[in-house]
């Protein structure tokens, strides 16, 4: 069986797969909205379980508009970006309500991701918006700025909830979201995007007892439940002042580039339920059974390499979290099966954007690859090291602890699988250092998988991008 294109780093290459290979594709794209700007206005005029804007703000209101950072979506959507359209429409409605432009702040909710320059923000907001607001009114969230963080409380399980002061002190907060995967959106936008390391460390660390429920399975995921418990703390605290966050969420289709297919606005829980319904309809492929072997092409266009450069840690994360991890119910690959990822995996880094990645790769991984030991021994060091804090706050670097977070996300997949192959590897040592078995070609990797699991083993090719989610019948 000849496949015309499989993602391989910066390109797509042809491949020959065994004739018995089952190829799964993303669902056909849902038709895009004919008039996205009008759809946004309609959503604002008829919010779900929330008062309309005209009842929320007035001439003296202090307003914060927070939005997803350029990490999302994995591949830029068809222009104009939803965030640009939504902010422009929202600003028009705020102006009608008499809100002064000087009382409006735009905050990029980048959490522990790196901050972005105005030029980089213009790729999602457009140049007019980035030029219209000064640096004190358009800026990136700082998860290490103690003066601008506030504790909202604790969950019943004792998890601290710390967020940007603007969440608590604004008369009205709006959040503009692109829910490109079920992992995104809802309370995660606030409880993670506008939070701090102190708060994020509680749910982004590796859990030894993780059951394997995917974070992409939003209605079953333990991670999602914890995030929503934290969101409830924020919601309760805001209720003391008669305030509620107003969210504007969107869904994109599987076209390339992706297009807008749905917009809902209003109360976070009610809006997110409707968003998930549309997202699951667009992205989920139902399958009757698991496979012995799955093949995934891994592009260099990955979330944490957007506007930057991929590196081996990001190749690993893209493979284990955003390829293997795209499932509901059960993983696509059975327990003890083999994953074959396809990427050249060069040992190269953007040292400005990923400073702590370099030390993590060169100093920590040669000594140990155990995600639990790595977190226990090194997380606080990497999180609080002055040079990494400085580079996060002022030099466009990912937070020092970020590579350790990503490394921990690979704990369950590596426990579930018997072997993990990297086909087309150009640097065998780099592949081994991230826990993968390297092969020069995909043919060699498939031959070894058949030798390990039998020549009649089932093989599935997960053809992406665009991203989609498999759901195995329970």
What would your notes on this structure say?
It is a single chain. The protein has 474 residues and is of the alpha/beta class. It contains 18 helices and 19 strands. The protein has helices at 36-45, 53-56, 82-96, 118-125, 127-132, 165-169, 188-191, 197-200, 222-239, 268-283, 312-324, 355-364, 371-384, 386-394, 402-409, 411-416, 428-433, 442-453; strands spanning 2-9, 11-16, 22-25, 63-68, 104-109, 138-140, 149-154, 160-164, 172-178, 246-252, 260-266, 284-287, 291-299, 327-328, 333-342, 419-423, 437-439, 459-463, 469-472. Strands 1, 2, 3, 13, 15, 16, 17 and 18 form an eight-stranded mixed β-sheet that branches. Strands 6-5-4-9-10-11 form a six-stranded mixed β-sheet, sandwiched between helices. A three-stranded parallel β-sheet has the order 12-19-14. Helix 1 (36-45) packs across helix 3 (82-96), helix 11 (312-324) packs across helix 15 and helix 13 packs antiparallel against helix 15. The longest helix is centred in the middle third of the chain and has 18 residues, at 222-239. It is globular, with a radius of gyration of 22 Å.
CATH architecture of the largest domain: 3-Layer(aba) Sandwich
Quaternary structure type: single chain
Radius of gyration: 22 Å
CATH class of the largest domain: Alpha Beta
Largest sheet: 8 strands, mixed
Overall residue-averaged pLDDT value:
97
Shape verdict: globular
Could you please say which CATH topology of the largest domain applies here? Answer: Rossmann fold
The number of distinct structural domains comes to 2
What is the terminal separation in angstroms? Answer: 30 Å
Output the structural class.
alpha/beta
The total strand number stands at 19
Q: Tally the helices: what do you get?
A: 18
CATH superfamily of the largest domain: LarA, N-terminal domain
